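Researcher: Quick sanity check before group meeting.
Model: Go ahead. Protein one:
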Amino acid sequence: MGLSRGFRTTLLERARKDANFRQALLKEGIDTMLAGDVETGKAILRDYIKAAAGFGQLSEATRIPAKSLMRMFGPKGNPRADNLFQIIRHLQAREGIHLEVGPCRPGRCKSKRHRPHPINPTRLSMTTSAQNSLSLSECSAPFLMC
């Protein structure tokens, strides 16, 4: 028996309704890219953009044509760093969060899955604009966060 609704449809609907889920989706997309899985990170960010802002609104805010944005986050897309950072900066502001990458501190991680990457031991933490740490800064990726 097949599912009555598609996974992506359910994901997009929840992201439109739930700000915490949307913030977690944005963070996960960036975490995934930092961990080295750029293709999956782009796919997560593409879903986030569709649910949160839409490519049209993002295009107006960043002055990057919508078609270019869609290509950047598509399977064969290769966004330039300046465009990617501009987009991430806008998405953070839109969500009212601030993401930071910093050194991973062994022993402070609450997850038993965490093993710092030998070359790039980083973590991505997130705070709201009110500077309240969210639980999303806990380890969720095996090599990236703590």
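Researcher: Fine. The other one?
Model: Protein two, sequence then structure:
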Amino acid sequence: MMGSNQVTQLQNTVSQSLPFEELRRGFSFNAFNCMKAYSYNGERYGYYGYDASGERTYKYDIFSAGSWTNETGGMNVSLQIDKMMLYPNGYLNMNQNGEYTKHYYADALRIASKIGSGFSQNLCDEMDKILNGVDSSYLDERRDIQYEEMMEELTELIDGNQITSINPIPYPEADLCNLSGSGIETALFFYHPDHLGSTGMVTDNYANVTQGFLYAPFGELIYEHNPGWESSRIPKYAFNAKELDEENGMYYYSARYYAPPTFISRDPMFEKYPSISPYTYCANNPMKFVDPTGEEVEFNSIIDVVYTFCERIVNKDFRSKFNELKKSDETYVFNFNTEAKNSLTTDGEKLFINYSDKIKDNDGNILEGENRGGYNAFSNLRHETTHGVQFEHGEIGFKYNNSNSNWDPILYDVHDELEAHVSGAGNFTWDATTLRSEFQDMSEDKQMISMKKTYTDIEQDMKLNNPGGKVKNDKYFVLPYKPR
């Protein structure tokens, strides 16, 4: 039987090897499973606020000072707010000194940040003009409400100790109405990501390297070029371009917090993947997949973000189909490749939209450049995304083949291929030398004849759809038919 010291040692060992267990004991979560407060050792605290959609709106970095008192028989703790970061929206953040950062994106990819300071006018005067008069005690009332909420929520983390005070900095010492800034933004920085979107380097507008990171596979930092560069004026965007909270050592992924190599709370969509731990990151394949929100995988690499973004700019039909798949209860993974693999596939859990800048002929030879017959990465992306929408509407499905351990398509007919080819042969392909004008110029009847000659091994006449409900097991993966 173990003695008390042995039990304590075992608990310490477990908490070090499984970091999310230790973190769970040092957490306070709200009703929507958003982390409100955090402490690892009772000396440094993080405190967080969120909007109605669960996106973070502010965070505090807090230090504590405790003293033992015989009167209460415990520790009296005074908390000192050291740093503060506000997030009015996804394009702007501001710290306690009035220094703000504007962020610029290409779709979901952050490409640059510009740092400024202050506001050239009196902020309260400007607000008064907009609201036609504001109660002069408004800020004081809001501060008092925030103070009471913080006292209540942080007390949950202090195990019987008594919080005597929280000393906010800079408020009320700072003049929030006039931060005395120039309003001039001279500091511009560019992010240079890898294939996962992780920040490799940050350069200024003179191409000087100001920051850089090296990562372990699951996102642990193994080297940082300039640890003091951000200096609380700009969030530290690192692995997967997510913010690294220095007060807790975790990445903020909107839906969840990530403490490499695991999330600290379970995946809200864990029922979709019963074979995978709800705490695991990207199905334990961080070299290939990214997890934009902590909820589901959508892109295999940053290349897929770029391709889908470009196509959505110019193609309304693709944009509509992409948005439909994004809203689906199923997970569709965009997967660019250079092996001429163009297909919609599944592993029984997720759907993979595989597309390439190459194609294969009937003999399996890979065709590139002008030999592609007009096909390119964008036309193949549109083609396979159309098959994804067909799956979403129960027009095609999958059946597991025990003989080759593959998921083979079912309910698959020539009408499905015709629709995909017409979508792929859109008027704009981002490659003027490979416009598929021959197929575009055919009449609908000739297009159908062409499809029947090409796809002789699938249903030629009837349009097949799923007559029943959703089936997702180890034999079938098919959704109910939904008219479009």
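Researcher: One line on it for the slide.
Model: The two ends are 66 Å apart (CA to CA).
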